[in-house]
Design a protein that fits this description.
Elements: H1 2-17, H2 24-35, H3 42-53, H4 58-72, H5 103-120, H6 128-139, E1 147-156, E2 160-161, H7 163-171, E3 182-189, E4 192-197, H8 203-220, E5 224-229, E6 234-235, H9 245-255, H10 265-276, E7 286-290, H11 299-312, E8 315-320, H12 333-338, E9 344-347, H13 351-362
Parallel strand pairs: 4-5, 4-7, 7-8, 8-9
Antiparallel strand pairs: 1-3, 2-3, 5-6
Helix pairs in contact: 1-4, 2-3, 3-4, 4-5, 6-8, 10-11
Length: 364
């Protein structure tokens, strides 16, 4: 039963990623429909989902493509062949004469399957063409920064009594407080600070992480600050702000002087806190550090600077590409020194992992 539930949950997540309106009500309806069958099979899962997750005729083709891509898509070989498609007629899921052999349907299935494979593949194993496709996926990501309460207030329907407005209203009614007015704290976007390690050990992932930072900058505008670290700290917020991702990456390449060099995380975080800790950049901010934790200097300095950063920031999220590898343990000295001050450690090795990072950032 656990395997069945995991299969349904994974399929629903894929369906949502491809645009199907698979809300909680429809998922519950799918589970109830599947419960009506005497056994659980691909055929029964297909029909249970088809009658519950599809809200219109336009959803049917998309549902068919998503079903084949999720359950019968190509595996992840080092160099994936063109994704294969499996006919539902061969599974006994469609009578003879159905449209499962339609060329257009097969093309949609192939495209969906390839996209899903690329989302989950390790970025360091991709060739140039696949990297370009993943770059487009990252650029299309939707990010939301959490909100925080400011010191300013706004009129509200509940909360604290607004004594000033209530008194003014009472004056107009011969001093009788006939109507109470309320106020609440204003909400404002929380600052997001992204620090990307561009040292040699992170060379395979730096471009994807910087493109993620570009997507955040483009969607969250002035609430984002971006830095690179290696052998020195470089503020690249202005360079990465171009609307076009490739233009932004070219501008970043021109201003960052320490690509694929060594790593001095402790020194660079010390400079970050010294220069930007007194203003509003780091205070109550969500700080994302993307690094594998390799440190050339003594890890004690990195640990002390992470402690300083923890006292300033609202949350610290550490993105380590190697966390996506099965059996990973944070054994690097830099990771050992930093982990006590990190709120969340997440993977960053694939487009799907970066989508999860966007969700983590959006949580307060």
């Amino acid at each position: 039963m656990r395997d069945v539930v995991e299969a349904i949950v994974g399929f629903v997540e894929t369906a949502r990623a491809f645009g199907l309106d698979a809300g909680p009500d429809r998922v519950q309806a799918m589970v109830c429909a599947l419960d009506q069958f005497e056994s659980v099979s691909y055929r029964n899962i297909y029909w249970a989902g088809r009658v519950t997750l599809c809200g219109s005729r336009d959803d049917l083709d998309r549902y068919d493509a998503v079903f084949d891509a999720h359950f019968f898509g190509a595996a992840e070989p080092p160099e994936p062949p063109p994704p294969r498609t499996i006919s539902r007629r061969a599974l006994g899921m469609e009578p003879d004469g159905g449209r499962s052999g339609d060329d257009d349907g097969n093309a949609k299935v192939s495209a969906a399957s390839r996209l899903e494979v690329l989302r989950r593949r390790d970025i360091s194993t991709l060739d140039a063409a696949d990297r370009d496709e993943v770059a487009r996926l990252i650029s299309a990501m939707d990010l939301h920064v959490p909100m925080r309460r400011s010191r300013r207030h706004r009129p509200a329907v509940h909360g604290l009594i607004d004594a000033e407005r209530t008194t003014r209203a009472a004056v107009r009614c011969a001093g009788e407080p006939i109507e109470l007015h309320w106020r609440a704290r204003r909400l404002k976007p929380r600052q997001l600070v992204i620090v990307v390690d561009v040292s040699g050990s992170m060379a395979a992932f730096s471009d994807a992480l910087l493109r993620f930072a570009h997507a955040a900058t483009r969607r969250l505008a002035r609430r984002v600050e971006v830095f690179t670290v290696g052998t020195k700290l470089t503020r690249i917020t202005a360079a990465i702000s171009s609307p076009d991702p490739d233009t932004a990456m070219a501008a970043v390449a021109a201003v960052v002087p320490d690509w694929s060099g060594g790593t001095r995380l402790g020194e660079e975080l010390k400079e970050l806190v010294d220069r930007f800790g007194r203003g509003t950049t780091l205070r109550r901010a969500t700080v994302v550090i993307a690094s594998d934790g390799w440190e050339r200097d003594a890890p004690d300095l990195l640990g002390s600077q992470m402690a300083r950063l923890r006292r300033l920031a609202h949350r610290i999220i550490w993105v380590n590409p190697h966390k996506g590898v099965p059996g990973y343990e944070p054994l690097a000295a830099g990771m050992q020194a930093s982990l006590p001050y990190v709120h969340e450690l997440v993977a960053g090795h694939s487009a799907a992992a970066l989508e999860n990072l966007a969700d983590v950032i959006g949580r307060d």
